[in-house]
Design goal:
With 737 residues, the protein is an alpha+beta fold. It is built from twelve helices and 40 strands. The longest helix has 20 residues.
Length: 737
C-alpha cells in the first residue's frame, strides 16, 4: 500500500489519459459534476451496488458499509497515517450536530460524502471536503417514546445502496432516503406499533435486500430479522428467532424443533431473542449470520419453568440470504438467565488453524467467552474466557459452557455474577488486524447482583425499566440475604472498569490490555499503518500501537466517545473521522468527563490545523436544598417506584449523571414543577416523556420524598453505609405494606 503522497489524483489521471490518446472518454457524471452537488452524490452513491459492496476492499478510500466490508473486520489497508508520522495528525474540521444525546453511529463515506445517523434516528449527509452539512432528515420520532425503550434513543448507523440511504428508527420504522437530496423514498413499519419494540442497529444490504432486526426484549418483544426489497420496501422474508404459540403453527419449520427446548407458556411473555445489533452477510456462501439476544423475562424459570435451552436465545443463527431459510445455529448461552446476549459484533475471517484455511466467524458476546466457529457449518472450533467470570468454569468440547453451581441464582438470595448484564463485551465493535492476527476488543469488567424471588409477580409494561424482561433478575432488594463472591480476582461490587485488549483468536490468549477508568468506551478501528484508534469515556480520542497498546497520540474531544472511528481517502488524502456524543445504555446515567458537550463530528488529517471547538467549564451545581418529612414507609415506597421508573435513565440519586441529569443535583424549581414534568410532559421536547399512564400524583410525591431524603443525607454527610441500612429497612416496610 502506497502512502497518500504517492497516489495520483483522479483529475491528473484524467489529464494524462487525454494527453496520451489525444481525446479521452467523455467524463462521467461523478467527474463532471461539482463535488458535493446532488448530481455528484447521485452518481457516486448510485454506483454502490452489490458488486461494489462485495469488493469493498478494492475501494480502500471509501467506507461503504457498517464494518467497512462484508467481513466486518473494521480494518483499513490505508497506511498514509502510520507510526512514524501520527504525531503530525491534526484537526481538519468539526461539525456540531446540535444534540446532547448519545451518538453511536459508524459513518459511511463515498468519494468525500459522509452519511451517518444520530439520536432520535436523525440521518445526516456531510461534505467531508468542506466539513459542512449537506442535508438532514428528521423522521419525526415521538419524543415521548422513551418509556418504551430500554437503552436510550441512539442509533448505530445506516446502509448505502444504489443511491439510497437506509436507516432504522427508534420507533421501529425502516427508511429509504434519497442520498442526493435527503427526501424520503419509502418507509415501512417493521414492528407492532402498539408494542414496546424499537430499532437501534444499523441495516445491512444482502444482494438487493435490506436486513434489519428489532429490539425490546426487556419488555414483551418476540425477536426476528426482516428482509425488505431495497427498491420498493416490500417484505421478502422474516426469520423469527424464538417460537410463538405452538397452537397457532410455526412460521418456519425449524421453530418446531426450537419449541421443544421451551416449556410453559413463554409466548404470553414475548420470549425475547431480539436481534438488535449484529447481522453479518456472507456473499461467498450466500448466507446471513444473526446475533440473537436475551430472553423475556431474563430468568428462565419465569419464562420456561421446566428448563430447556430456549432456542434460539443467545445464539448465532445462519440463514439463507435470499429466503431466510434456517441453516444452522450455535448457542453461546443455553437457557440464558443473565441477559447474556449474542448480539455482539460478528466478524468473518480466515485463520490458519488446525491445518486448514480456517474459514471462520468470531464473536466476543456478553457471556465473556471468545468463540471461533466454522462459518460453513457452525461447528465449534475453539473458545476461551476473555473477561473475568464466575458463572461458568469453561467450555466443553462442543463449546457449551460448564456452569458453576448456583450460577442461576434460584434460591431467593442475591448472587454476585460476572460478567454483569453489561457483559464482558457490549455492542461497541471490535477490530481484526491481519498483520498481527489479533482481535482488538473494547471489553468490560464488572460484577452484577442477581436474585430470583418466586413470590414477586411479573411486572407489566407499565414500568419503564424491564417490563417483563428483568423480572426477578435485577437486584431490587436492599435487605435480601447476599451470597458474596469471595474470589480476590473478582471486581468489587459497585465498581467496574474498561479493558482495551488484544486477543489472539488462534491461541485463544490475551496479548496485552489497557485498563480504562469507566467500563463504557468506544468501538475500534485498525489500519495498515500499525495503528489502533478508539474514543473513550475520558473524552479522549487515542491512537495506539497495535503490537503493544502504547498510546502514540491523543486529542481532547470534550465528551466521552462510544462510536467507532472510520478512515478513508478524499482526493488522495487520508482522513479519520469519529462522531462524538456521550450516552446510550450506561452512558445515560454515568460519565467520566465534567460535562456533556454537543454531539460533534471530529475529522483529522496530517497537517490539519483547524481550531478545536470551545471546551466549556464544568457546570456549577449543588445538592437540592429541600427537605422532606416523609415517613420511612413512604420513603421506601418512593425508592421502589424510583427503581421501577427512573433509575434506568437518571441513575442512583447522588451520582454524577450521564447524558441525562442526576436529579439530586436539580434545582428547587424543578421539584416545584415535578408533577408538570412527570405527568404533563412539560419537558417532552427535551426527551422527557410523560408518565401520566404509569404514575399517579401520589406516586410522584413518593418518588420526590425518596430523592429529597437522599439529598438530606448527602448534605448532612451521613455515611453511605448508614444511609443504605435506613433505606433497606424502609424498603422492607414498603414491601410488607
Amino acid at each position: 500500500m502506497r502512502h497518500p503522497g504517492s497516489l495520483v489524483p483522479p483529475a491528473l489521471l484524467a489529464c494524462l489519459a487525454l494527453v496520451g490518446c489525444g481525446q479521452g472518454p467523455a467524463p462521467t457524471a461523478a467527474e463532471s459534476a461539482p463535488k458535493g452537488s446532488p448530481a455528484h452524490i447521485r452518481a457516486v452513491t448510485g454506483a454502490v451496488d452489490d458488486a461494489a459492496l462485495r469488493d469493498a476492499d478494492a475501494r480502500p478510500g471509501d467506507w461503504l458499509t457498517y464494518g467497512r466490508n462484508y467481513r466486518e473486520d473494521r480494518y483499513s489497508p490505508l497506511d498514509g497515517i502510520h507510526r512514524e508520522n501520527v504525531g503530525e495528525l491534526g484537526l481538519a474540521w468539526t461539525l456540531d450536530l446540535g444534540t446532547k444525546r448519545g451518538i453511536q453511529a459508524t459513518p459511511l463515506v463515498v468519494d468525500g460524502i459522509m452519511f451517518l445517523t444520530g439520536p432520535w434516528s436523525l440521518v445526516y449527509a456531510v461534505d467531508v471536503r468542506k466539513g459542512t452539512l449537506i442535508w438532514e432528515y428528521d423522521p419525526g420520532v415521538d419524543r415521548g417514546i422513551g418509556t418504551r425503550l430500554c437503552c436510550g434513543v441512539s442509533n448505530r448507523g445506516a446502509a448505502l445502496y444504489r443511491g439510497a440511504v437506509f436507516a432504522g428508527t427508534v420507533d421501529g420504522r425502516l427508511l429509504s432516503i434519497d442520498a442526493a437530496d435527503g427526501t424520503l423514498n419509502w418507509e415501512v413499519m417493521t414492528v407492532d406499533p402498539e408494542g414496546y419494540q424499537s430499532i437501534t442497529g444499523a441495516p445491512r444490504i444482502a444482494n438487493g435486500l435490506v436486513l434489519i432486526g428489532n429490539g425490546g426484549a426487556e419488555f414483551t418483544a418476540r425477536g426476528y430479522v426482516s428482509a425488505y426489497r431495497a427498491d420498493t420496501g416490500e417484505l421478502a422474508w422474516r426469520f423469527y428467532t424464538v417460537p410463538g404459540n405452538p397452537d397457532e403453527g410455526f412460521e418456519h419449520p425449524d421453530l418446531e424443533q426450537a419449541a421443544a427446548t421451551w416449556t410453559g407458556t413463554w409466548w404470553e411473555l414475548g420470549g425475547g431473542g431480539t436481534a438488535w445489533d449484529s447481522i453479518a452477510y456472507d456473499p461467498e456462501l450466500g448466507r446471513v449470520y444473526i446475533g440473537v439476544g436475551n430472553g423475556t423475562p431474563w430468568n428462565r424459570l419465569r419464562r420456561s419453568p421446566e428448563g430447556g435451552d430456549n432456542l434460539y436465545l443467545s445464539s448465532i443463527v445462519a440463514v439463507e440470504a435470499s429466503t431466510g431459510q434456517y441453516l444452522w445455529h450455535f448457542q453461546t448461552t443455553p437457557g440464558d438467565t443473565w441477559d447474556y446476549t449474542a448480539t455482539q459484533h460478528i466478524m468473518r475471517v480466515d485463520l490458519a488453524m488446525d491445518g486448514d484455511d480456517g474459514a471462520v466467524i468470531m464473536q466476543a458476546p456478553k457471556n465473556g467467552f471468545f468463540y471461533v466457529l466454522d462459518r460453513e457449518t457452525g461447528a465449534f472450533r475453539s473458545g476461551a474466557a476473555f473477561a473475568y467470570m464466575n458463572w461458568a468454569t469453561g467450555l466443553d468440547p462442543n463449546g457449551r459452557p460448564i456452569e458453576r453451581e448456583g450460577a442461576r441464582y434460584e434460591d431467593g438470595r442475591k448472587h454476585r455474577i460476572a460478567p454483569s448484564a453489561h457483559g464482558g463485551h457490549n455492542w461497541q465493535p471490535m477490530s481484526y488486524h491481519p498483520e498481527t492476527g489479533w482481535v482488538y476488543i473494547p471489553a468490560v469488567e464488572q460484577i452484577g447482583s442477581l436474585r430470583y424471588d418466586r413470590s414477586v409477580p411479573d411486572r407489566s409494561r407499565r414500568r419503564l425499566n424491564g417490563g417483563n424482561g428483568a423480572t426477578n433478575a435485577n437486584n431490587m432488594s436492599l435487605y435480601a440475604e447476599e451470597v458474596p463472591d469471595d474470589d480476590p480476582r473478582a471486581p468489587k461490587p459497585g465498581q467496574s472498569y474498561g479493558r482495551l485488549i488484544a486477543w489472539d483468536p488462534v491461541a485463544q490468549e490475551l496479548k496485552w490490555e489497557v485498563r480504562q477508568p469507566l467500563m463504557y468506551n468506544g468501538g475500534l478501528l485498525t489500519t495498515a499503518g500499525g495503528l489502533l484508534f478508539q474514543g473513550d469515556a475520558e473524552g479522549r480520542f487515542r491512537i495506539r500501537d497495535i503490537r503493544t497498546g502504547d498510546a502514540l497520540w491523543e486529542f481532547d474531544v470534550r465528551s466521552g466517545a462510544v462510536a467507532p472511528p472510520v478512515t478513508y481517502l478524499v482526493d488522495g488524502e487520508q482522513y479519520v473521522s469519529i462522531a462524538v456524543g456521550w450516552g446510550g445504555g450506561p452512558g445515560k446515567r454515568m460519565k467520566q468527563v465534567d460535562r456533556i458537550h454537543p454531539g460533534t463530528i471530529y475529522t483529522f488529517k496530517l497537517g490539519g490545523d483547524a481550531p478545536p471547538p470551545e471546551k466549556l467549564p464544568p457546570l456549577e451545581r449543588a445538592i437540592v436544598a429541600l427537605s422532606t418529612d416523609a415517613s420511612p414507609l413512604e420513603i421506601g415506597a418512593g425508592y421502589n417506584l424510583y427503581l421501577g421508573h427512573c433509575v434506568h435513565c437518571h441513575g442512583t440519586p447522588g451520582g454524577d449523571g450521564g447524558e441525562i441529569p442526576n436529579l439530586v443535583w436539580s434545582t428547587e424549581g424543578m421539584y416545584e414543577l415535578l408533577h408538570e414534568i412527570v405527568l404533563d410532559g412539560l419537558l417532552l421536547a427535551e426527551g422527557m416523556p410523560s408518565f401520566e399512564d404509569k404514575l399517579t400524583g401520589e406516586e410522584v410525591d413518593l418518588i420526590k420524598a425518596y430523592m429529597l431524603h437522599v439529598a438530606e443525607g448527602m448534605r448532612a454527610g451521613t455515611p453511605s453505609d448508614e444511609r443504605r441500612r435506613f433505606l433497606a429497612d424502609a424498603q422492607r416496610l414498603a414491601d410488607k405494606a
